[in-house]
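User: We ran a pulldown and think these components assemble together. Before we commit to crystallization trials, I'd like a predicted model of the whole complex to look at. Sequences follow.
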Amino acid sequence: MKNVQKSKRANKSLPFFFKDEFKVSFVIIFISTVLLISTFSFDIVPPILNRGIQPATFPKALLVLIISLTLLIYYLSIKKPWKIEKKLPKPFFLTLMSFLIFIIISKTLDFFLAISLLSIFVSYCWGEKRIFYLLLVSIIFPIIVFIFFETILGLRFPPGIITNIYYQV
Amino acid sequence: MMAPLFSSKLLLVLFFGTLFGLILGVLPGLGPTTGGALILPFTMTLDPLSAIVLLTSIYCAGTYGGAITAILINTPGTPAAAATCLDGYPLAQKGEAGRALGMATVSSTVGGIFSVIILVFFAPLLAQLAYEFGQPEYFALAIFGLTMLASIGEGSPIKNLIAGAFGILISTIGKDFMTSIDRFTYGINELSVGIGFIPVVVGLFAISEMLTQSTLLNQVFKRVALKAVRLPSIDDYKKTWKTILRSSGIGSFIGVLPAEGGTVASLIGYSEAKRFSKNPEEFGKGSIEGIAGAEAANNAATGGAMVPTLALGIPGSATTAVILTGLIIHGVRPGPDLFREQPDFLYGIFGAMLIANILFFIFGFFGAKIFARITLVPNKILWPMIFAVSVCGTYSLNQSIIDVWIMLFFGVLGFFMRRYGFSVVPVIIGLILGELVEGTLRQSLVIFDGNWLMFFTRPIVLTFFILSLIALAFPLIRSRKIKKKL
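Assistant: Here's a predicted model for the assembly, 655 residues in total across the polymer chains.
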């Protein structure tokens, strides 16, 4: 509660372009505008094949609606600022970073290894220091999940340095 | 009604579904929607009826399971149990945790069974009515569903509308289903088939919750001691039977409306229990009526939400959106024809919901103490495990690594959406209704020869449009009323 009040007070004293309400509205409107512009490059169906409206019309209408509503929420936020919780802590950014590392490792090295590394990294960053539990989340549990999906669902995981050993490639 | 369920396999599915649902409900941050989405890939190994029985039993038990955590650690296991905290925890602090859980279990069961009866009677009637619906009527109905979601859902109605429109926009990615023209694919082949429901739902619910949990690591739960769950006394029954029945009715009605049922139902059930109570001053301090009002309503919303899902193919809540996806991926098309062509299948679902309500009563009554211990599993162990299941589950549907990346993207997006007050539920409903909205709009315009005004010549369409306008005006009227009161 105190944090919310503090952040509300801090938010009030900032110039408008630093306020969260402006930043969020700006991002939504900017992305929507880029998407709206891209709809003009969609192929146009010849009248004889066209059923009802052009394929671009519906997304265009949605994007215009999103932009209009975002302008409205921004206008309303000037009168009544949003309640935004405290600043984000370090483990959040580490978890976010681990997602990026996951994407890189799963693409370049191995899908299973990426899951294992993310699990141990997140668990450690969140405060787990006991070796057994770190091994449980990073090795034992992923192996159980891997075998379950592989044998029961008949799933074939993407090739990689560890999965290739399992598949004897 | 029960005949299709008399097979050992289905009963086993029901048993494990209820058990799994309870565990999901007990764990704060998880819940029947996320759990349903995570289990969806596993259902591919089951026949359609077993798959839907599994999902519905998770839905019923998960909704009840939230009450255990709400009462014992003052944290709702599911959003629908938020109102239960108000009186459940204070009563537990007074040393009456067993009585509070007993009342929550009984009222949830009564609410759940009441709503199954409503489902059995009203779903076929609604399906019958749906025979009158053409493309324009379905379009108007879908619009009504989205506006209802925006107006009576959680948070700001305008933000909910933006989220709903965003969900529909996601559904337009890929090849246009009428002309096969690429939209928003930007030359990426994988995007031409569109964005799947599972990566979005797992991302928006499970991964965004994982990120949320990373911000709450210092949170300490204080668990109230529980000796055993006690059945409510005769006195308690005398005090609450009217509340339970009223809340069951409210919950079923709110559930039928195409919007996020359980959470809203429990809040209305709670406030109505307070309004009708002889002792409103006890509310918030451990009132047994408060627990009964909230719990009967949120469980009654489960059966209610299944009515539009099965009869019209319009999900009544986020969890029923997952169930609807389950139906679609198993080749079952909900709607009026389902009632005519596959009555056994439907009665199997009705029966399964009824048994699930009885099963969670038994599990809750005898096992609440054990389920409460699950909350002791630390987040630093639990969430990396959920991540592993989320990744493998999402990958398994199409064996596509792109789906996993999409899941992560929506996880991050969902986190920021929630942080800035945008509910993620309208995105899911928008995504699932997107094709229906666009398809029926375009086909209607073909019927009307491009004349938009023709929509207003059809009475059912007009009724839905007027209802949509009322739904949109409702938050405005409500806030003015509150201002006047102040």
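The mean pLDDT of chain B is 84. That may be worth checking against your pulldown data before setting up trials.

User: Thanks, that helps.
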